[in-house]
Amino acid sequence: MDTRILVIDDDPEIRYLLSTSLQLEGYRVEALDSGEKALQQLVEKPRPSLMILDLVMPGLSGIETLRRLRELHRDMPVLVLSCQSTPNAIVEAIQSGASDYLVKPFEDSKLQNCISRLLAAHHALPGPAAGLPGGQPFIALNERMLKIQETIRRISGSDVPVFIHGESGVGKEVVARSIHELSNRREKRFLKINCAALPSELLESELFGYERGAFTGAVNSKPGKFQLADQGTIFLDEISEMSPALQAKLLQVLQDGQFSRLGGQTMTQVDVRVLAATNANPAEVLRNGSFRKDLYYRLTVVNIHVPPLRERRDELPALISHFLEKYAAQYERADLIPSPRMLAAMQQYDWPGNIRELENVIRR
């Protein structure tokens, strides 16, 4: 194993324990006692495979070290350690550039699992326009989409929830699938459910399952999406349409990793990464009370806004080319070449339906 890990912690005992544990696993380890020394080394030496960084240190804080580090190395995995377990502390660390977060004290097995996830996810990262199995490529050609891609790369190895928002048709599901496909859960299920497509009671049974006799017609017990997605990822589309009662139940899953089926008393434990999306304005649904603030803050450890197509026109040629190739192959047509006049018209159009509308136009 030729993996170098840089440990930054002002506590000599923690540095010793971490270094010893990591060396026993076969990693090459270097330990420093300050953020200033870490940044200097990152300038002077080849970058490490991964950094472990304590948040609370004298002098340059962990958060400030993290922010400056991201100016040097945007996609290097960084595992942050802290005694604080509050949502605000975790959100600040992730938004400042952390790839994952461990709360002290922690078991050595948890540390090793976290490092393995981050390294595996980093090695699996695709190029700027890499495709997803059976889906639309994640095309990132302008600055805003490149930043989203960087965020996906950075958090792919962690298990933190992700909140994705933007207009209908912008590609929120593509972002969600990218996160899953780059994560250590990629061999497990990715299950999507549209929260706006089902009445509240039916949505509850779909998400959490039901016991026999829970309602008329429930002749057998049935597992829900959360149980079926155990060890994998669940994507809750249009989550702002979820009823307050269901939001409370979802909050419990995020906090404790457990729930009860409809009509049941037994708690079921699951390990599921939650990705959520909405086309609503987050500020508006929080203001009118239709979306719980505590649930919102739990979900927005990572907050991704996907811009509309009219604000990323530089990606139109690549998207048009992709859809032309897709439908030329599907319909066995070799003559699907847009005229210059058509391309000019497409560039001038505002695409209110975004990428979904663009695909439908090309398919027709």
SSE layout:
Elements: E1 4-8, H1 12-24, E2 28-32, H2 35-44, E3 50-54, H3 62-72, E4 78-82, H4 87-96, E5 100-103, H5 108-123, H6 143-155, E6 162-165, H7 172-182, E7 190-194, H8 200-208, H9 225-228, E8 233-237, H10 244-256, E9 258-260, E10 267-269, E11 273-278, H11 282-287, H12 293-299, E12 302-305, H13 316-330, H14 340-348, H15 354-363
Parallel strand pairs: 1-2, 1-3, 3-4, 4-5, 6-11, 6-12, 7-8, 8-11
Antiparallel strand pairs: 9-10
Characterization of this structure:
- The protein folds into three domains: about 5-125, Response regulator (Rossmann fold); about 145-305, Rossmann fold (3-Layer(aba) Sandwich), CATH 3.40.50.300; about 310-364, no CATH class.
- The strands form three sheets. A five-stranded parallel β-sheet has the order 2-1-3-4-5, sandwiched between helices. Strands 7-8-11-6-12 form a five-stranded parallel β-sheet. The protein has a two-stranded antiparallel ribbon with strand order 9-10.
- The N and C termini lie far apart (about 55 Å).
- It contains 15 helices and twelve strands.
- The chain has helices at about 10-25, 35-45, 60-70, 85-95, 110-125, 145-155, 170-180, 200-210, 225-230, 245-255, 280-285, 295-300, 315-330, 340-350, 355-364; strands at about 5-10, 30, 50-55, 80, 100-105, 160-165, 190-195, 235, 260, 265-270, 275-280, 300-305.
- The protein has about 375 residues and is of the alpha/beta class.
- The chain is about 45% helix and about 15% strand.
